[in-house]
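Structure, all six chains, one model.
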Amino acid sequence: MMKFSDNQPIYQQISDYICNQILDKKWIEGDRMPSVREIAVLMEVNPNTAMRAFQTLQDIGAVENRRGIGHFVSEGAYDAVLTMKRKEFIENDVPQFIKSMKRLGYSLSDINDLA
Amino acid sequence: MMKFSDNQPIYQQISDYICNQILDKKWIEGDRMPSVREIAVLMEVNPNTAMRAFQTLQDIGAVENRRGIGHFVSEGAYDAVLTMKRKEFIENDVPQFIKSMKRLGYSLSDINDLA
Amino acid sequence: MMKFSDNQPIYQQISDYICNQILDKKWIEGDRMPSVREIAVLMEVNPNTAMRAFQTLQDIGAVENRRGIGHFVSEGAYDAVLTMKRKEFIENDVPQFIKSMKRLGYSLSDINDLA
Amino acid sequence: MMKFSDNQPIYQQISDYICNQILDKKWIEGDRMPSVREIAVLMEVNPNTAMRAFQTLQDIGAVENRRGIGHFVSEGAYDAVLTMKRKEFIENDVPQFIKSMKRLGYSLSDINDLA
DNA sequence: GTGGTCTAGACCACT
DNA sequence: GTGGTCTAGACCACA
């Protein structure tokens, strides 16, 4: 169902995947998400690992839990995730990318050609 | 002396730093590099960690060891590093960057404005 | 209708709420209580959860069930609840409160000022 | 070595214990803490459980980790913990305590006599 | 030696 | 059924 890379913890890859689902509006606010066990089966992962993904999502306010019922995409999840990811992107990814780019002798128009 | 991030091994951060010194022509081919111990002290790092950084540099042919004397920037180091880093950049960094960028609703011209 | 905290079972929060109604003499002995279904709807809770709240109240003798009719505040409910809650308060809550208070550098007169 | 209560997760009781050590100045900033495995043995708990305690402490900034070396009481831990615990106390514990107290017919001078 | 991640599987409280 | 916690034990990367 899903290929995991080795240089990042699986639970993080799962929570990133879910964030992307939210950003792509495939899962919208209020939606009930698959249960921990379902995710575990779908992604061929231990339930604990799936659980941990949900917990990190809860920490950033993207997901909330109704006890005994399941996890839901929380109110304002889209904005919360978008804002957080954009901040990370602008503050970390972009400067680092630009720095590497310049060091390696490329310009943004080169990137444009590649994209 | 140097701040290390948590999501990447320290030895790799050190070897990246050295690669950048080479790319920026601050250290050029034939230069004698600081000893493992000097690096360890300067960067407040375990000597084993500094050693491991040198080993990865040796593996990619950027550095060579003259026994009993020290480490030197090897012949052709600049080209070797540049080629390798460019390959990584084009194959991994650029596609990933573009994907994030699109998902977050930015375009290359936005990036241009930020840079 | 009601906000539930996460660190305590909902059925317990409901039964506490009802105990408080009794202590505050808002519901007095012999009063007919809302039905399980009514509670469930009002509090947006699973009927089983509401049911369980009633059961714990029955266990401590605060509520009695007349079959086919409904739940009633039982004879002596006020005294029973008061006695039980006081015991809990003196034996558990007070010592724990005092301990936290001291550790955080407050005295009872500080609390008095806050209250 | 330590008795754990049933109505709170063990990992939380451990992290509370550590917070108290910090508040009581038994462990001060910069101190190296026992390793995860040591804690696990001392407290007769699974290493994962001890680990989780450390992680919650890291989240609140009381503890930091030097990779491959161990966990340390972080700079400013005392203030961070004190501030956080005080906030919780004033905002949650005190009002709730006062409310119970009044409802059960006690006054602060009664509490004073008990303390 | 250290922490970090993961699996397998159990048990529990709650809805 | 749901999530939450815990154990036992493994493997890995890192210092």
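Strands of chain C lie at 63-66, 70-73.
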